[in-house]
Amino acid sequence: MKTRIDWVRRNCALLSSIEEEFASTRPFAGKTIGTGIHLEPKTVVLLLTLQRGGARIVATGNLNTTQAAAVQYLRERGVTVFGGPTTQFEEHRLNLEAVLDQRPDLLLDNGGDLFDLWRENRYSALLGGTEETTSGRMRLEPLRGELAMPILVINDSPIKQFAENEHAVGQSVLEAYMRITNRITNGQRVTVFGYGACGRGVAANFRAAHAKVSVVDLDPVKRLQAHLDGYDTPRRDAAIASADVIVTVTGRSGVLGPEDLGLFKDGVVIANAGHFPIEVDAKAIASSPEVDRRDLFEDAIEELRLADGRVLRILAGGHMVNLAGPRPMGNSIESMDLGFALQARCLEAVAVGRVDRGDCVVPVPRAINEQVAEAYLKTCYS
Ligand SMILES: NC(=O)c1ccc[n+]([C@@H]2O[C@H](COP(=O)([O-])OP(=O)(O)OC[C@H]3O[C@@H](n4cnc5c(N)ncnc54)[C@H](O)[C@@H]3O)[C@@H](O)[C@H]2O)c1
Q1: How far does the centroid of ligand 1 lie from the alpha carbon of residue 196, in Å?
Q2: 243 CB less than 6 Å from ligand 1?
Q3: Is the shortest distance between the CB of 252 and ligand 1 below 6 Å?
Q4: Pocket residue to mutate for ligand 1, from 275, 319, 329, most atoms within 8 A of Cβ
Q5: Is 53's C-beta closer than 6 angstroms to any atom of ligand 1?
Q6: Among 37, 126, 144, 153, which is disulfide-ready with 110 (CB 3.0 to 4.6 Å)?
Q7: Rounded distance, CA 133 to CA 165, Å?
Q8: Distance 249 CA to ligand 1 centre (A)
Q9: Domain check: are 250 and 353 in the same one?
Q10: 277 and 177 share one domain
């Protein structure tokens, strides 16, 4: 029987054709690419595509998202993978250090961890690389002076913004909520914190699932956009107090914490879809003296009973909900194929010297966006 990874490989049309091309052009011949990215079926396909381009790949996962089958599949195909599934920051950091100890020529970073760590233990062979996320871009921008090498931010491509962040994250967060809780969305009051590309998709998908959605954003311009898109935009406290479901997707820390315990509606379900498990301070909430009882249900649901009888449910301990719970699939294959085609093309551009140190923490070049868009459209209309 073929595996899910084989299914994903078969449906990544863009990466398959890039893989074929790379097998003859070999843009990474003699080079090592280091990465710390969610290790799941779609990233497996990306890493194997880069390998076909001549790269030696050294990898580790991200916190709480590494899938054992993905690690095994990669190892069987000659990829060096450090560590396995973990939720421990310290263990994760040691795995990232192990990747950098291999002195990669290029980094495919996800959250800025590797470039940040490189500053503590510099070596001159590093040519540059890519950063996948918004959170990573925010972390690396202030470090431009120190990094001074080409780093292309995949997240800032318009393709990544609409294909993955908006459409695919929105769909997969709704899918994860239903898969983990198996609860109704119709008529539920859902509050989405953050109305960036991801928040827009999350709000739209819950609305399409017949929930009553409100949006909280610190930025009045985003609140206006949400308002004109037809969502309620109540004050933060009122939005929390009325919500049956709260999803955070801001990229910022401390969005919800123990200081909000007085506000939550009885039975509220709280999930985070932002990259890092920092948006909902799940640990501080659970250890608050107001919590009388904690029940852990299978499939990553924690229920907290407060002294006044109200109940709160937190999904996946505040880790990214769409890569948590039973049989997590993450975003759709095609949306990731698009984003990873951008990754492959950007790493190629850095490897062959098509970008330079002036391109440090900048969006994907327009020519690459156009190349990837044309390639995808060709798969739909040929
Ligand atoms: N789950 C996934 O599969 C997935 C995929 C892509 C990105 N992400 C992550 O999702 C997060 C959001 O990404 P994005 O591209 O939408 O970011 P973005 O920067 O475009 O939008 C974030 C929004 O949150 C708002 N915000 C910040 N702090 C807030 C607060 N305390 N309360 C309310 N609003 C607040 C900002 O004003 C902004 O409008 C990031 O962490 C990103 O890495 C997750």
Answers
A1: 6
A2: no
A3: yes
A4: 275
A5: no
A6: 37
A7: 10
A8: 4
A9: no
A10: yes
Is 114 found in the same domain as 86? yes
Last residue of a domain, which of 284, 307, 323? 323
As beta bridge partners, residue 80 has 58
Q: Count the domains in the chain.
A: 2
Contacts (Cβ under 8 Å, ≥6 apart) of 373: 159
Give the distance (Å) from ligand 1 centre to CA of residue 315: 18
In terms of domains, do 200 and 302 share one?
A: yes
**Residue with CA closest to ligand 1 atom 20:** 196
Ligand 1 nearest atom to the CA of residue 276, by list position: 41
CATH number for position 85: 3.40.50.1480
Instruction: Provide the CATH number for the domain around residue 189.
Output: 3.40.50.720
Say yes or no: 270 and 341 in one domain. Answer: no
The answer to whether residues 223 and 154 belong to one domain is no
Most ligand 1 atoms within 8 A of CB, residue of 37, 167, 249, 259 to mutate: 249
Helix (H) or strand (E) holding 351: helix 333-351
Which amino acid, one-letter code, is at 260? D
**Which residues span the domain enclosing 34?**
4-159+331-381
Say if residue 155 is in the same domain as residue 29.
yes
293 alpha carbon – ligand 1 mean position (Å): 31
Q: How far apart are the first and last CA of the chain?
A: 30
pLDDT by residue for the chain (382 residues), tens only, comes to: 999 999 999 999 999 999 999 999 999 999 999 999 989 999 999 999 999 999 999 999 987 778 899 999 999 999 999 987 777 888 889 999 999 999 999 999 999 999 999 999 899 999 999 999 888 999 999 999 999 999 999 999 999 999 999 999 999 999 999 999 999 999 999 999 999 999 999 999 999 999 999 999 999 999 999 999 999 999 999 999 999 999 999 999 999 999 999 999 999 999 999 988 999 999 999 999 999 999 999 999 999 999 999 999 999 999 999 988 998 888 999 999 999 999 999 999 999 999 999 999 999 999 999 999 999 999 988 6
φ and ψ of 249, to 5 deg: -155, 65
- The backbone region for 185, taken as left when phi is positive above 0, alpha when psi lies in -120 to 50, beta otherwise, is alpha
Looking up tokens 């006044």 gives: 308
Same domain, 298 and 352: no
Write down the pTM of the prediction.
0.88
